[in-house]
Amino acid sequence: MRQTQGPTSAPVSVSPSMGCLKKTLSFLLIFVSICARETLLQEADPTRQRKPFFERLRRLEEQSLVEESQAVALALNQSQAAIQEDVAHLKTWFRKSQRRSQKVDDKLQALNLSLSTKSRQWVEEEKEEKAQREATASLALSIRALQDALASLTQQVHSQDARLAALEGQMQRASPGPEALGLTTAPTLTQLAQRGPGSSQLWRNSQTSRLSLQHRSSPQDFTDHVQKTQKFPAPSSHQAALPRTHQGLERICSSGPVLTFPNASTENVIFLSPGFLMPLRALSFCSWVRTASSHLGTLLSYATNDNDNKLVLHGRDSLVPGSIHFVIGDPVFRELSLQPLLDGQWHHICIIWTSMEGKYWLHIDRRIVATGSHFREGYEIPPGGSLVLGQEQDTVGGEFDSSEAFVGSISGLAIWDRALVPREVANLATGQEFPAGAILTLTNATSVGGFVQRAKCTCLEQCP
Q1: DSSP 8-state assignment for residue 443
Q2: Which of 453, 344, 446, 440 lies closest to 383 in space, CA to CA?
Q3: Which domains does the chain carry?
Q4: CA distance 324 to 86
Q5: What residues have CB less than 8 Å from 441, skipping those under 6 apart?
Q6: Contact of 266 with 393, CB cutoff 8 Å
């Protein structure tokens, strides 16, 4: 800068230090003025300096917005496509569901119709079953009444047959001859002609009256005569299983196989099968028996799952020699004496029971030696159990005791589901006739165990 001088000035003296200071101040003033100008210029146009940064920022924001909008549009398109696909699937599933629902409705209707038909059939079947049950109950009552009537008739026959047997014994002891009864030899035709007309008819009338007298003296002959005159059918072949070869109790022939229990081993046992197939309201047990033991042992044992002593003919070494317990439904029993059987000879026994009034009879060698009543009155022996000979069962088919085992021989054993009458027992013991209707015999032996020996003898006395 140049300095101008005024019109008038006084002379001034300047030192060197003051000159330096002035130069420094002048430099500072110039620098400040430059800075201030730049500052003013910047304040006057601020966008000139900031414009590139905001433009880049704006471009970045626009670019980001574009990318985001593109991504959103893409995602929206994808979502729309997925939704459309799902809607298509839903439509397909809905159509299938409609078809399935229609099928299910058809099946339900068919099932409902079938159930209605079945229900009607069940109602009808239930009515029929009810009618059948009522008919069965009525039939059972009728059968029970018939069984009771038969049991009552059997008792009456027992009583009458015992009386006839006593009368026959009395007549046999009297043993009148033909002359005592007024029976003579039939005259010849020449003798009748010599006696004159009408003699033949008179002789036939006298013979008829004499035959009636003879019938009154012998009931069996009277029965045979009635069968012949009225032409009753002869017994069937199975009713005459034993031929009439017996001559009293001394000769016992054609009684079937002989089964011998040689010792008291618990392995000596015979199983009979099938057992009782129907409930028993009456029972007859008959057999030839021979034993030389000090006690009889167990002849028969019938056990079921709920009771191992449903039917037992039970003897053991602790009882009175020769005694036996006749058990029907443990613990009820009757003690029977079979002392005559301990002599080592063959004897025929029959033990008979009926639930009608609980009556029972013991026959030994055709004679009634014991009888009683009110023994298991009205009781039924159930079916489906285990039936053995020679051992006493403590469980079904097992747990035998040697002290209760039978030692001896048996033959001709048979069981009936009815009460035999004395005449049938006598015919059986003498081999005249085998009573019909036996439900079990020794032919039903399915298992013979231990040391039991089987022999076939023509006559029992010939067996060792």
Answers
A1: G
A2: 440
A3: 258-462 (2.60.120.200)
A4: 94
A5: 256, 413, 414, 415
A6: no
Q: How confident is the model at residue 170 (pLDDT cuts 50, 70, 90)?
A: low
| Distance, CA of 385 to CA of 279 (rounded, Å) | 11
431: tokens are 């081999």
Residue 254 contacts by C-beta under 8 Å, 6 or more apart in sequence? 242, 243, 245, 431, 458, 459
Say if residues 461 and 248 touch (Cβ distance below 8 Å).
no
pLDDT for position 191: 46
Rounded-to-integer distance, Cα 392 and Cα 296, Å: 12
Q: How many angstroms separate the CA atoms of 264 and 401, rounded?
A: 9
Alpha-carbon distance 364 to 426, whole Å?
Answer: 10
Nearest alpha-carbon partner for 319 in 338, 332, 303: 338
- Across 124-162, b (16+ Cβ under 10 Å) vs e yields eeeeeeeeeeeeeeeeeeeeeeebbebbeebbebbeebb
Biggest alpha carbon–alpha carbon distance for the chain: 241
Q: What value does the mean pLDDT of the chain take? A: 77
Question: CA-CA distance, 65 to 291, in Å (whole number)?
Answer: 125
Nearest to 398 by CA among 242, 223, 267: 267
Q: Which residues, including other chains, have CB under 8 Å from residue 343's CB and lie 6 or more apart?
A: 292
Both tokens of 164, joined, read 């006839």
What percentage of the chain's residues is helix, strand, coil (to nearest 5)?
50, 20, 35
Structure tokens belonging to residue 26? 């002048």
Residue given tokens 């409902």 in the structure block = 112
pLDDT band at 48 (very low <50, low <70, confident <90, very high): low
Cα–Cα distance for residue pair 147/281, rounded to 1 Å: 8
